[in-house]
Amino acid sequence: MPVTRGRRVFVAAAYAVTWALLTVVCSTVIFLHSSRETTLASHDAVLRPDLSGHVVLLTGPVLPDVRVPTGDRVGVSVQLGKTDAASTADLVDRYALIASQPEGPEARVREVLADLAIDSLVRGAAVATLPIIVWMLIGAHRRNVLFKRARQRRTIALLLAVGLVGVLVAQPWANDEETLDSEQEWQPLAEFLGPDVPIPAELDRVEVRGDVTTSQTRRLIESAVGTYEDGKNFYRDAAEAAADLDLRQPEEGETVVLLISDRHDNIGMDRVARAVGDAAGAEAVFDAGDDTSTGSTWEAFSLDSLDAAFDDGPYADQKWAVTGNHDHGTFVGRYLSDHGWVVLDGEVVDGPAGVRLLGVGDPRSSGLGSWRDESGLSFDEVADRLADAACQAQDDGDRIGTILVHDANMGDPALERGCVDLVVGGHLHVQSGPTVVPGNNGAVGYSYTTGTTGGAAYAIAVGAAIRRPAGITLLTYRDGRPVGVQPVTLDTTGTFTVGDFTTLAPIAPPESN
């Protein structure tokens, strides 16, 4: 009996080891032959993992390909596809600005590769079970019979014939035709552009492949290098300066929330906003919308950057957002929700530090006026519904500490009815408030509008520097209620202005005291 049990254990272990080895082999093969369509660097793109040890950016027929080492054996090729850039010059400048703030694209590539690796592991494990199942179904007796037949001349001849057919189909001797891709070699960016173009030190590892066939193309690439350096320096210096700002620090029992709005694709400001929040001891972030200019999928690079800036530390699971009037359609809200942001949709939710939070996306985005499942509502109608929800919560003994909307005017009815302590938004691209609003029930609340965090003068703020003063706001809470507001402004010259800390003292209606 012990011998039988020991043999069973041995056989089971052998199957498990065989299955594990087959899983590794199959998963690796599947992973290295897989691909995934996504949006990256404002393009539709196809990512394919490989063992090159490089990230290879295949830009198409006009611009040279680019690659950088990953520092590991695993690499990835990125085939860029459709984009919306109006001209090649605009596209190259956009590349440079995204490259100067690479955290978002890097996070997106890692996310896609991780998804592919998990999918490949699952598929590989499934494939690895097939030969084991077949082996077990055949059984020992039938396997012995098959092995004996395999030694017969007829069987050997049939196996050789099958092998010959496979070779004829594969034709390994066929010579591939020479292409431009095979003729061009990788060379350092500095060598590619020549000694007349100074290259930032961090681009030393960048290599390119292709020809600068015209003086216009060379000028585009030279301009991109300049844009890269300007953008990296401006936002890097601003983030470093933010760490030394004299900001009010939270007292015991207080929680600081970072409020941003109207980024309009300016990914450079993400690290600056994070630095301001860190310097103030912030533990959460509110996003009041207009993270994009059109809400299109090509703008996923902006959302990737935003998420990468707040994906760790105290912000990792403390992120709330609403969509703005420029975040057309459902893409922006869905994308942020898929990446761990709580996208407000008219339901009262738990906010940071016990704050009861309410909010909804701007109804003016591409005709959307959704109140949960109802569409076609106007701005005023949504504002009234928001007030109804806030006042219903108050009647239930659940007073709203903050309403987060894109345009603070949407919270006016709730303030006038005395059903909320603080309404915050953006939209105007300039800071305004906090403004005291007495409610008709004896309550007192505040309305506050933060400036454009992206330094946006127009609907899109992608650039090597901000186009107008960039606004960031710090909200302070105690016991679930707002107690202070402090604005921070970055000027176009790179200089910060820290506003005074304004104390808030909201008053609940007498009946709820």
Task: For the structure shown, list the relevant keywords.
globular; 513 residues; 8-stranded mixed β-sheet; 12 helices; alpha/beta; single chain
Model description:
- The protein is α/β, with parallel strands linked by helices and 513 residues long.
- Helix content is 39%, strand content 21%.
- It has helices at 2-32, 88-100, 103-150, 153-170, 180-183, 189-193, 215-242, 268-279, 300-309, 331-338, 379-395, 412-416; strands at 36-40, 43-50, 54-58, 65-69, 75-83, 187-188, 207-209, 254-260, 282-287, 319-321, 342-343, 349-350, 356-359, 400-404, 420-425, 432-438, 444-449, 470-478, 481-490, 496-498, 502-503.
- The strands form 3 sheets. Strands 8, 9, 10, 11, 18, 19, 20 and 21 form an 8-stranded mixed sheet that branches. It has a 7-stranded mixed sheet with strand order 1-2-5-3-4-7-6.
- Helix 1 (2-32) packs across helix 3, helix 3 (103-150) packs across helix 9 and helix 7 (215-242) runs parallel beside helix 8.
- Mean pLDDT is 82; it is low at 366-373.
